[in-house]
Design brief:
By secondary structure, the protein is α+β, with helices and mostly antiparallel strands. The chain is about 40% helix and about 15% strand. A 5-stranded antiparallel sheet has the order 15-14-13-12-16, with helices on one face. A 4-stranded antiparallel sheet has the order 1-2-3-6, with no helix packed on it. α13 runs parallel beside α15 (about 360-370). The chain is globular.
């Protein structure tokens, strides 16, 4: 999936903040203050040369993590016709003033408060396909109209001057000022603490970091911030005190009960290198505060439990779990999934086989078993593969075939797979499955379809045709991209284009393949594994396991695996109805 191409969201992996598809991210900077004003305060800037864009984000605290909504801070390619990295097709009209030649490679905030962006000016990303003999680039300054650059002067020989430097928009300037202030010791406390009254939260945070290194008087000021109404200030104060290394457990026991999940996240992370005997009460308190859905919080708890997962699991199973794992609360089920110690194998096997649980819960149990990786855990996956059906069975089989010849080679899975009737290469019969190419569209232009009034109820009925390959909410097959997420993230024009001409832009991670056997049987689908056997998933989610010695070739399909709207019998009005329904998701 697109998410997996970026970072598979398995236990031990922090969720991606923004999954935007193909690209080649490079420079990144955080704008805390400067010439752009309060509106842009706290803006994250990320260079994306493959997309000819500098992305901007204004992170919003959401539980223990952040919500990132992307916008184009600086771009030459508003039409989003990309070329150069991870894109099907490509933009070919590459003249010297082409929109795809803006390749922002780095971004920084200057001491004058302006944002500076460096540009490669290259024909491609990777390998620097230059068009000019001089290998030239450019540096762009982004500032308000009428801006006159001026680097503020500050007196490095006085405390007041260094405090002024601490307020600089440039990270190198304020780092220099902070280092000099630390050298002054307690004598700098009175002037540095004045920054705690600033209306800029980043100025206040910088003061906290410096005060923590200014002796007992400075630490007293930092401890006061633990009572701040601003959760981010409490986090900064906790981090600064943690770095001092004194009284960490006592402080953490107190902060583990903080009302903010973001603060408790920090407390959990601080326990990573602390022995279980000392960290136990803190980790249990953090676990009790988990709401059952916040992945950032869950990953922080798991990170804090590093090296002590087994001990924490036993304690939490008694305090938060249940004798019957099928009846676990969602919060404890997720915690157990993240910890997945060896002794959880029986519990997760029971959950993987429980038909009363949702498909997602059963698949999560399989992931936990796979990550536990013990002999008992792997045998639990064998049981699920032999006794389950549908996507749960397919998921179990995938794990077994994917790892039987590598990390699970010592478990002699070939014999178990044959004995259970899961996979015997001698008995495989390959069934041909091909997707016909889309005919040339006879539908009216997209702008005309957008003018039609759609009926969401009719669209919901028509959209059931998509269930064969896509998930919409809880319905459908996990084969193509999840339509619910896609519809929420894309414009109506993009959604219609994908329905009318699926091959125009193929979602990253969903490229099709053509598997041809030596008997000339042809299978179109997504190759999930190209080892032995070759695992290919086709329309309807049908999975086939083809022994490698029966495969003649595996090649790219070079078009979408998805049937077009017209192949599904949809006319312009039907598309308007489907779009109306998707807009309700």
């Amino acid at each position: 999936t697109p998410v997996a191409e970026w970072r598979q969201e398995d236990p031990g992996t922090m969720p991606s903040g923004d999954v935007y598809g193909g690209g080649a991210p490079t420079g990144i900077a955080y704008y805390e203050n400067g010439a752009l004003g309060k509106k842009h305060r706290g803006m994250l800037l990320s260079c994306e040369p493959a997309r000819n864009t500098v992305f901007g984000y204004l992170p919003v605290v959401e539980g223990a993590g952040f919500k990132l909504e992307r916008f184009n801070f600086l771009t030459t390619n508003t039409e989003e016709e990309f070329d150069g990295a991870d894109f099907t097709g490509g933009f070919r009209d590459r003249t010297k003033d082409s929109k795809v030649l803006f390749r922002p490679s780095d971004v920084a905030v200057g001491p004058d408060g302006a944002v500076y962006v460096t540009d490669w000016y290259d024909a491609r990303v990777g390998g620097h396909g230059d068009l000019d003999d001089t290998l030239s680039g450019a540096i762009y300054r982004v500032a308000p109209k009428g801006f006159k650059p001026k680097v503020p002067d500050f007196n490095t020989s006085s405390t007041a001057g260094l405090v002024a430097g601490l307020k600089s928009s440039a990270v190198n300037v304020r780092a220099t000022a902070a280092r000099a202030l630390r050298e002054q010791g307690e004598g700098a406390v009175n002037e540095v603490k004045n920054l705690l009254d600033s209306n800029n939260p980043y100025h206040r945070a910088r003061a906290v970091w410096v005060l923590a290194d200014l002796g007992d008087a400075g630490l007293k000021q930092v401890r006061r911030q633990l009572r701040s109404d601003d959760e981010q200030m409490r986090i900064v104060a906790y981090r600064a005190l943690r770095r001092q290394g004194k009284g960490l457990i006592r402080l953490s026991k107190r902060m583990a009960k903080d009302p903010s999940p973001a603060v408790r996240r920090e407390v959990a992370l601080a326990m990573r290198d602390i022995p279980f005997a000392r960290a136990k009460d803190v980790l249990v308190a953090v676990a009790r505060g988990y709401d059952g859905s916040d992945r950032y919080y869950l990953e922080a708890l798991g990170t804090g439990a590093t090296g002590k997962e087994s001990q924490l699991y036993d304690v939490l199973a008694t305090e938060l779990g249940s004798q019957d794992s099928v009846n676990w609360s969602p919060s404890f089920a997720n915690i157990a999934w993240r910890l997945h110690p060896a002794q959880s194998a029986d519990d997760f096997t029971q959950r993987a086989l429980a038909e009363g649980l949702s498909e997602g819960e059963r698949k999560a149990a399989l992931v936990a078993l796979a990550y536990a990786g013990s002999k008992d855990a792997v045998h639990g996956i064998v049981e699920a593969a032999s006794k389950s059906s549908g996507m749960v069975q397919a998921h179990a089989v995938w794990w077994l075939l994917n790892r039987k010849g590598s990390v699970w080679a010592d478990y002699n899975l070939d014999a178990a797979l044959k004995e259970k009737g899961i996979y015997d290469p001698e008995k495989v019969e390959v069934v041909g499955m091909q997707v016909p190419p889309s005919p040339e569209s006879k539908l009216p232009p997209i702008e005309d379809i957008l003018k039609l009034k759609g009926d969401a109820d009719k669209g919901k009925l028509l959209a059931t045709a998509c269930y064969m390959c896509h998930k919409i909410g809880e319905n459908g097959v996990d084969y193509g991209p999840d339509i619910t997420a896609f519809a929420r993230a894309q414009t109506s024009e993009v959604v219609l284009r994908s329905l009318i001409d699926p091959s125009a832009e193929i979602s990253h991670g969903y490229n099709g393949s053509v598997v041809t056997t030596k008997d000339k049987v042809v299978v179109h689908g997504r190759v999930l594994s190209n080892s032995n056997p070759v695992i290919v998933q086709s329309q309807g989610g049908v999975m086939q396991m083809i022994p490698k010695n029966k495969v003649e070739s595996v090649k790219g399909l070079r078009r979408s695996l998805m049937l077009s709207a017209e192949q599904l019998g949809m006319d312009a009005q039907a598309l308007a109805d489907v779009l109306a329904y998707l807009n309700t998701l």
